[in-house]
């Protein structure tokens, strides 16, 4: 059984941030209307106010772009800290402990359930990123190593060895390509030996 590296809340929120960012990095715009947004929100258990209008969808897309910007500068700790602090400030994050019947463990909420959706999401995601920074694990924020993929990932493996995203089957594609390249090289070297 794998153990969590961070709290359940932090890991789930970091995964939610990745999925959100990747909604326009793989196969075009996938956050193309309220049904898609609702599916995403329900999939990660986001609670509280939902306006269900174009303004809300646009604000979540702007948050997505901002989060993508944080991933893109993750190699520069000072810039990342500046962007995370700005997001915490802009969302007016105000932490408080709560629990629900379906989740009896205490966990943090960082905005009121009445605040706009992007604000609640942004506060939670900024705090999860702050957790990563506090423990010196910013290098867990990665862009997929596949040359034809721009998806982001959060590497929650114990040894930080994850290189490929979950969105485009990139890991399998890269392994198959490497295997085929090895076969070609073996074929060429075997053919060269026979020719001599």
Automatic annotation (TrEMBL):
Every Zinc finger CGNR domain range: 140-182
Classification via InterPro entries: ABATE, ABATE_dom_sf, Znf_CGNR
SUPFAM superfamilies linked to this entry: Jann2411-like
Pfam family, one: zf-CGNR
PANTHER family: BLL6575 PROTEIN
Protein name: Zinc finger CGNR domain-containing protein
């Amino acid at each position: 059984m794998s153990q969590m590296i961070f709290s359940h809340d932090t890991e789930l929120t970091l995964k939610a941030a990745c999925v959100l960012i990747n909604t326009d990095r793989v196969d075009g715009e996938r956050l193309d209307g309220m049904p898609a947004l609702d599916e995403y929100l329900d999939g990660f258990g986001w609670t509280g106010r939902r306006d269900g209008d174009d303004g809300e969808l646009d604000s979540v897309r702007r948050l997505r772009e901002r989060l993508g910007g944080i991933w893109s500068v993750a190699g520069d700790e000072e810039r990342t800290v500046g962007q995370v602090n700005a997001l915490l400030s802009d969302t007016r994050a105000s932490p408080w402990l709560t629990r629900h019947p379906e989740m009896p463990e205490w966990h943090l909420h960082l905005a009121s359930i009445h605040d706009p959706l992007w604000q609640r999401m942004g506060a939670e995601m900024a705090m999860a990123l702050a957790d990563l920074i506090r423990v010196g694990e910013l290098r867990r924020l990665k862009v997929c190593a596949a040359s034809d993929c721009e998806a982001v990932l959060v590497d929650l493996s114990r040894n930080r060895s994850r290189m490929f995203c979950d969105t485009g089957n990139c890991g399998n594609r890269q392994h198959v390509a490497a295997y085929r390249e090895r076969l070609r090289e073996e074929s060429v070297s075997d053919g060269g030996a026979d020719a001599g």
